Amino acid sequence: MTLREQLIGAWQLHSYVEVPEDGSEPFYPLGTQPKGIIMYTPDGYMSAQLMADGREPFAIADFYQGEPEEYVAAGSTYIGYSGRFAVDEQKQTLTHSMYVSFFPNWLGQSQPRAVSLANGVLTLGPTSPIVSRGKRVMSRLVWHRAESA
């Protein structure tokens, strides 16, 4: 079975850690118990939605009437993007192309991912260091195959 065929379906986020190149302590951007789903469709689309556990609800139930502080808190604990994906079977890498993204800087980008997949566990990360919180880091996201609904 090809890597692409193995990716198809839904995966639940198990962990997300960033390891700084400078040897400082690893960082958990969404806490130690993040929640998330990443999905790959047979027709070549993907969607990733990640968040910290225990996010506070807005004071009022109107998406467009939150206080600035509520939007800041919500935005700093959420990552979301969707678009096409492509797999390089020889290199065992994956590319996510951002058609929509919560972080506007990613719009139109294609980002390569290193991939490891075995026994229902998918590990993704960048192919080279990224900058996060002012440091060059390697991210590692571990996903487990989601149970069928």
Beta-strand fraction estimate: over 45%
Order of H and E elements: HEEEHEEEEEEE
Average pLDDT, all residues? 96
- C-alpha Rg (nearest Å): 16 Å
- Biggest sheet, spatial arrangement of strands: 1-2-3-4-5-7-8-10
Task: Please give the count of helices.
Answer: 2
Shape: globular
Taking the alpha carbons of the first and last residues, their distance comes to 23 Å
The count of strands amounts to: 10
The helicity comes to under 10%
Largest sheet, if any?
A: 8 strands, antiparallel, barrel
Label the structural class. Answer: mainly beta
Uncertain runs are: none
Can you put this structure into words, describing what you see?
With 149 residues, the protein is mostly beta strands. 9% of the residues lie in helices and 48% in strands. It has an 8-stranded antiparallel beta barrel with strand order 1-2-3-4-5-7-8-10. Strand 7 and strand 8 (121-126) form a beta hairpin. The mean pLDDT is 96.
Concise account of the structure shown:
This protein has 2 helices and 10 strands, in the order αβββαβββββββ.
Secondary-structure blueprint:
Blueprint: H1 3-7, E1 9-20, E2 35-40, E3 45-51, H2 68-75, E4 78-88, E5 93-97, E6 100-101, E7 110-118, E8 121-126, E9 130-132, E10 135-145
Antiparallel strand pairs: 1-2, 1-10, 2-3, 3-4, 4-5, 4-6, 5-7, 7-8, 8-10, 9-10
What are the main properties of this structure?
149 residues; mainly beta; 2 helices; 48% strand; globular
